[in-house]
Amino acid sequence: MTITDLRTVGADTSAVHFARVAGHIGADVSGVDLSRPLDREVADAVVAGLHRHKVIFFRDQHIDHAQQIAFARNFGPVTASHPYDDDAPTDFPEILKIDNREYERKFGVKAASYTNEWHTDVTALVNPPAVSILRAGNTPVRGGDTSWTNLAAAYAGLPESIKELVDGLRAEHRFGGRHPVFKEGSNYGDKVARTPLIAEHPVVRVHPVTGEKILFVQPGFTSRIVGYSRRQSDALLDLLFDEVTNAAYTVRLRWREGTIAVWDNRATAHLAPGDVNHLDVARVLYRTTIEGDIPVGVDGASSVAISGEQFIGS
Ligand SMILES: [Fe+2]
């Protein structure tokens, strides 16, 4: 493939262009104005580009909460902000404010986001969001970058013998994964204890649009391999997390005002930064999520809820 091919491969239309920014994942999108409703052809191109590139980046898009929600609807029904969050802006219950200064109050620990580990959004739900859209509010002068990894590439890179093993496995997902994050007695600690969300997902899910096999585990939520002893589970999860977080499969974004990132939450994990927690800086981002389907494994078996209901959008 030539360099020209690499720059234009994707779902280009006459209006929309995708320029890859890393080897396995990520593209910059141009030719789209997110402050206006998208034409059908443009919206279809953006959705197709998302499925191909897994995370897409828009720059210099200065939009507000209502415009972000309107843009999000191109990807499907928009959910409420978060199953545990109750301080979305009054007029915009779909908006989750991610503010490093507020998480210490909520969690009882310093954090830039829900977790500073690699994670896929809210896989403690039986139907984790299909897509997440994150818009820059206040961006720090330095630090606070977000990284994403391609979970289809992580699966594809496994040796055949490990693929055969993990194709038939299922794993439990809960907040904090193997290491609960919320301090007992904190705002979130209480909510998680009162209404736990726990789901069992296939370790390898089949993407409903692309048909790709996705290595659907990450340290933020995956707590154990079902049917394995603790030691067996930890050993295998350590190996799989190493693959998922292999830098070769990742892309890293420097936020600035007007930046918007959209990721396929069914095919990626991402890492909130740990490098701003010691700085006296404000890092504010606004997230919306799209209702997800219930994952299906290689054997056709679906995820099940151990505790909690489906998270439905409108
Ligand atoms: Fe996240």
TrEMBL record:
Pfam families annotated for this entry? TauD
Name the SUPFAM superfamilies on file. Answer: Clavaminate synthase-like (SSF51197)
Q: What is this protein called?
A: Taurine dioxygenase
What keywords appear on the UniProt entry? Dioxygenase, Iron, Metal-binding, Oxidoreductase
- What are this entry's molecular-function GO terms? 2-oxoglutarate-dependent dioxygenase activity; metal ion binding
Do you know which InterPro entries this protein is assigned to? AtsK-like (IPR051323), TauD-like_sf (IPR042098), TauD/TfdA-like (IPR003819)
Its needed co-factors are: Fe(2+)
Q: Which family does it belong to?
A: Belongs to the TfdA dioxygenase family.
The keyword Iron belongs to this UniProt entry's keyword annotation: yes
